[in-house]
Design goal:
There is one protein chain. By secondary structure, this protein is an all-alpha fold. It is globular. The N and C termini lie far apart (28 Å).
Length: 79
């Protein structure tokens, strides 16, 4: 899907947005379950990486998971 059109199909659009921005030390579990069932999870994750998102749950990944994925993709492209 081009641009951010994928957002119309995102399950998070039908869910409390606070779930995807937990307080430090808060649980990511419910947000990640929503993401795992979402039909546009991949598009969301790609958007988060391409736009440099640093906060929240995107494509089923926490901030730490997103940073690891970005580093891994960077090493793969550099090889």
């Amino acid at each position: 899907m081009s641009g951010a059109l994928w957002r119309a199909d995102a399950l998070c659009a039908q869910t409390d947005p606070e779930l995807f921005y937990p307080e430090p030390g808060g649980s990511h579990a419910v947000a990640k379950r929503v993401c795992m069932a979402c039909p546009v999870r991949r598009e969301c994750l790609n958007y988060a990486i391409d736009s440099g998102q640093t906060w929240g749950i995107w494509g089923g990944l926490s901030q730490e998971g997103l940073r690891r994925l970005v580093r891994t993709r960077g090493r793969t492209r550099a090889a």
